[in-house]
Amino acid sequence: MQRTKLxxxxxxxxxxxxxxxxxxxxxxxxxxxxxxxxxxxxxFHEMPIMWxxxxxxxxxxFERLAIKLAFRFVTPGKESEFMVTVAISSMIVxxxxxxxxLIATVLFAHPGSEVVAVWLQxxxxxxxxxxxxxxxxxxxxxxxxxxxxxxxxxxxREEQAA
Length: 162
Known about the structure:
mainly alpha, 5 helices
């Protein structure tokens, strides 16, 4: 869907924001014992750290690897675009979730000598949420927003050509 490096960066930045914000809200709700309206505001305190980390990891560490892993399960052109998208998204979650959970554990959970145990617990709790959040909320939302901007660009190009 993204054709240029700039489009890829914008897509990644938006997707990372939606994913990180959702996951930060989820983790704060777990820590506080339940969801409340204040969590939506509290989550913004972690965003300046976790959002850039997610963008950097996605773009420079995991994107190519996730695509390579996904293409072991699906073949572009042979399978539907939907299946290719789901495979890539799933691999990104599979790579990003343990890494982001470890970073959040070290920075925010203050695990002391229990870092491995706390990280594993966070990872096990985060993975299902990250997978479903990506598959059913963040992924479709960001892709549809991108399609709207793409169709607006195409309309503008057609108007300029006429």
